[in-house]
Amino acid sequence: SAVISQKPSRDICQRGTSLTIQCQVDSQVTMMFWYRQQPGQSLTLIATANQGSEATYESGFVIDKFPISRPNLTFSTLTVSNMSPEDSSIYLCSVEGDNTGELFFGEGSRLTVL
Amino acid sequence: RKEVEQDPGPFNVPEGATVAFNCTYSNSASQSFFWYRQDCRKEPKLLMSVYSSGNEDGRFTAQLNRASQYISLLIRDSKLSDSATYLCVVNNGNQFYFGTGTSLTVIP
User: Which residues of chain B have a CB within 8 Å of the CB of A100?
Assistant: First the structure.
């Protein structure tokens, strides 16, 4: 299994500001995933963070809005830029288990934009 | 069409009841299947993987029907602690897809 630490666990931000979420994994992983879970909704993949190359973004998500860093095999950050109330959501970092194929999640970062 | 579809519920059942959830997926080439549990304000956690032969873990039984492209989860002898949202998750080899979740409340 993988242990994933995310921070901040929650934050309240003003419209127009940016917030960077950090994700630390206790083992080296090739890919790290960033998901968004809006209130009452399921998880939507924002992007896949690859070490040594640019992140791969899903349809509807762009690098300017959600820049991602992946400086090494155990760490990644997701920035939510120029926030609006529609960005209020839980943001989850995730990695895939090597042997089981399951996804492990960080505890999530609950963001509220006023 | 959504990749994964679930009945959102809510399911409100008395303690001791048996409850079943179903989930359908659209991609016949999907390779792996899971049920996750998500408690309120918490991250999803794996409940069980779903194998073609079906699998059981205590009070929980998961089944996969590839021909009809659906997955089921059966919970027997429901406990209060089973109250949560149950997410159906499918991996098509490239990406994981999540259902919207089925809400279960077990009532004393």
Answer: 49
